[in-house]
Amino acid sequence: MMLAWLLIVPMAGGLLAWLAGLFNPLAARIVSLLILLLDLAIALPLLHSTSNIAMPGNWMAGFNAPWIPAFGMSFRLGMDGVSWLLVVLTILIGIFAIIVSWDEIDDGVGFFHANLLWSLAGAIGVFVALDMFLFFYFWELMLVPMYFIIAIWGHENRRRAAIKFFLFTQGSGLLILISILALAFIHQQQTGVLTFNYFELIQTHTAGTLGFLIMLGLFIAFVVKLASFPVHVWLPETHTEAPTAGSVILASILLKTGAYGLMRFVVPLMPMAAHSLAPVALWLGVGSILYGAFLAYGQSDLKKLIAYTSISHMGFVLIGVFVFNNIAWQGVVILLVAHGISTGALFIIVGSVQHRLHTRDLARMGGMWTDLPRLSSFGTFFILASMGLPGLGNFVGEFLILRGAWAMAPLITVIAAIGLIPAAMYSLIAIQRAFHGPADEERDTHDFGARETAMMLVLAAAIIYLGVYPQPVLNVAAPSLNNMQPQPATAMLKETRAG
Amino acid sequence: MIAWQMSAGLALALFMLGLLGLLARRSLVFVMMSIEIMLNAAGLLFITAGMRWGNPDGQIMLILVLNLAGAELALGLILILRLRNRITNLDGDSVNLLRDVP
Amino acid sequence: MISYLWLIPALPLLGSVILGMFGPSMGPRLSGAVGTLSVGLAAVLAMAIALQWLGHPPAHSMYQQTLWSWINLPGFSINVGLYLDPVSLLMVLVITIVGCLIHLFSTEYMEGEDGYSRFFAYLNLFVSAMLLLVLADDLALLFVGWEGVGVCSYLLVGFWFSESANGYAARKSFVVTRVADIFMLAGLLLLATQLGTLNIQNMLAGAVATWPSGSLMPAVAASLLLMGGLGKSAQVPLQTWLPDAMAGPTPVSALIHAATMVTAGVYLVVRTHALFLLAPSVLDAIAIGAVITLLVAAFAGLVQSDIKRVLAYSTMSQIGYMFLALGVGAWPAAMFHFMTHAVFKALLFLTAGAIAMRLDHEQNIFAMGGLRTKLPLAFWAFLIGSASLAALPVISAGFFSKEMILGAVAAAPMPGMVLWGAGILGAMLTAIYIFRVVFMVFLGPVNTEISGSYGLRVAIPLVTLSAGALVVGWLETPETLGGQTIFSQFLSPAVGVFRHLPVSAMIPLTGIAAPLLGVAIAYTLYRNGTWARAATTEPSRLTLFLKSGSGFDTLYDAVIVAPYMGLVQLLRRDPVDQMFMLLRDLAVALHRQLRATQIGQIRRYASWMMAGSVATIAILLFA
Asked: Which CATH class is domain B7-93?
């Protein structure tokens, strides 16, 4: 039941924030903040609980209620370690998103916060849904409010970016819908039962061309969301044009749903097809790493530069998922969380820069360290973190992914590791062009205040913690990784290999 | 007793006349009249079909068609009258506001 | 005492955190005090541990301290743990003591600079990372320190960030070493996959147990680690960043780019020497590469006009000697030269800084002159450092360590004599280029304005290091000079017993003669004005080639940097995005075509309807 509350609170809270915003913008902000704190209070204690509903695998919590029984759809939720980490990340990043919007969003405050909370609710739903149709429902719930956030509160080219975002996400949403319908129908053919229950569908035999096509549909949809090369094209523009809170949520959370979808659905549901696609996926990952890194170097818009670095990092995630071993998957989980924190922080910093300089153009920055030392030192810190500096969270993720990938695909691993050199190039050029160099322009020299410094310190502490002592996170994720290799999938794989 | 073929032939001829008028005339009043002729041709064909198969449905349909024609005529005339305020000569070709402007 | 080992890297880290958080509001005096004291306390602790160690060495002469479990997964785990043995103890002593002196020097040198506390925060962070590097008991943890020192080096080279050139130098130093680090990372991944652990001692034991000597796997692993070391230690082919790194403040050059960080490659090879012993071919490659480096750098040092660039090339060249020692398996000789080099090179850099302080940051040796009487402290310090660098016999520390290396090289099997010959040539060149600087800077007429005076915080480090540069050589002496072997005996539990192999008397005699000859040549060329003329005349192409460090920069710019930038420019506008834009263009084109049918004429529409109806009926009737 706690899981259902986890979703109801932000959904109802969105409505409440909207209503509050009609009377007073400040009320909307405070209501949203309280709603997310309440949600966090619901989510945190789940860590030490075990599911009261019998589900195969290791689950912390579960929930099941009938929804549309005629079509075998139910309101089935389940939370394991990976879900928990991502849900907590979602709520935390959501809190930061509300704080950064505090003096950035001035009109339509109530509706803005409603959209924010609904999008977060959708993301939480994606991370806990265990009914395929429900998953699709949350997937859409997460994206449509985000469309409004970009289209209404974005920067100069927001319309164009919002349409691009909408086309890509709706296209991938359609692929998900077709794939899960096809999967459900295959299951009905095999067993005579129409159901969208994850645990039932896992037992479907999905060998053959149709299974491959279903897997391909889901794969493409999730890879679009992950923003892997060559379907990343929505990401740079969307991230650039979205308001700061939107960019933070897009980069820190929505990208992660793609990776989550790959791990939770593609790999266990269609194991054979996923294995046969692995070489392609690995090369796509390598392509993303290098392509994102090269493009990031050439950007003159700081926000776009960071957007391209996300593409590069998600390449590591793609590789990690498709080498199918626990070490790499642990790396993926760590990298997802660490990237959520570091890139979220970077977008917050870029938002503050834009707030002060009224530009995102690197050519008009430079020498900011002279005027804004605190902002610049945090900026440098998080850029170095995102570069994969050992001792910080992203390195642990990347290192584990490479460690896990080496045994399966040494060549891919080596090229991916080489991708860390362009990563250094773009990181350093960003530091140089934004923070170092001569300070030419007269500008607002109002450095980070207490609110921003506190946010940055929390995020920095989190990224250091992940880098220095990731073991607790690894422990949380460990049992849930077995859920990604459920008994039916391993049995099917064994069968195929033997036959 | 008239052979149904003759009646159907008349209906076809009327329809063709109406169509010709619709395509050839530019005055909107004549266009309306041509449409009426075509509707009447359709009505005649219903009657003919009813006669051929000895079924009253055809006549019922005629009444429906006549009703429709009346309603349509009323609407059409209103549109023409409204248009007269905008254009002077009732030339159908000059009423092309739906054209997709590049 | 030894159980407080963890405090050694923790103290500078704490200093760095304090300076980073509160530095701007602390004021320069307190900042400098925190920065220096944190390293100073670490140095005191290190000395206490060393004293205890000398009295009662722990069992097996090593001490392990596991702090916490970093990553613990089935099949792969890494502990955050420290490992102290004679080699790392020596490194710790040098880093903390020399580091402390350089911090002390910096408090005066950096006075009045913007970002004073930031400087000490970075410097403390560097010391902490360097200590982690040498104390790590796991290669992955070593890599943390390894990258940490790289980042600190980047931040400190680009410390004066308002100059874009400094930023370029900083980026270059980081990216070139990052290239090397990727090799090292690949090496770590290979070792972790093949041997299942990165814990250095277990890994080495596993390597010795699983891999036969001379087989492929250890050779690959050793080469990958070596490439990492070559980058950090500025050896051919990854040496190009070091001269540019001189853009940083001079104490940084002294600490990072002379005494400590650049010797990390040497330390890495010594630490994993068991692996390198399994790969004799890699050891040969090290020796050959070292000779190339030491000659390239020595020739480049001959023609530089910036005092710091001369010292940078000399550092490169001296580390070449250390690698030469590694190549012939003379681990203690390499460590000995590391120690003496750390002392005399820090001394030289600090003296160069001390001179610059008084000369309004002048670094061009041709603009100086006659400083012998004006700056006696700097003169004597620089002379002692130069003597040590040139390995002038008996009076200098550098003599004993270089002699130890050359003796071991000469005794090595073929091509030992060839390598030895190159080493002797290098020694002579070293004497020429450093005494060229000495003569140019300290003799002749005074032609610059001199201002200010030295405080204690400059004098103490210079005097201490000068004393060190005179005496530390006596820890290990050739048989003719007493046959002292304290140093190699101290290291023997970690790297095995070192034997001074018998060589013909010609070898040490040549080693004594070469530097003296070099000084004589330098003096002759100074007296007849060759050096001074070189500053005013148009340089020949050979000079330019040597001055640029044998054209490696030009080569890399053409082969790597230019294509990279070309690719970046090519991709800048995201060609994939443009491809997706084709979809939009297709839709627009179709729209243009179909728009022609939408002309707003009722008659046209009616005829289309007619045609459509006829076609439908026709299909229904005849299909």
From this structure: mainly alpha
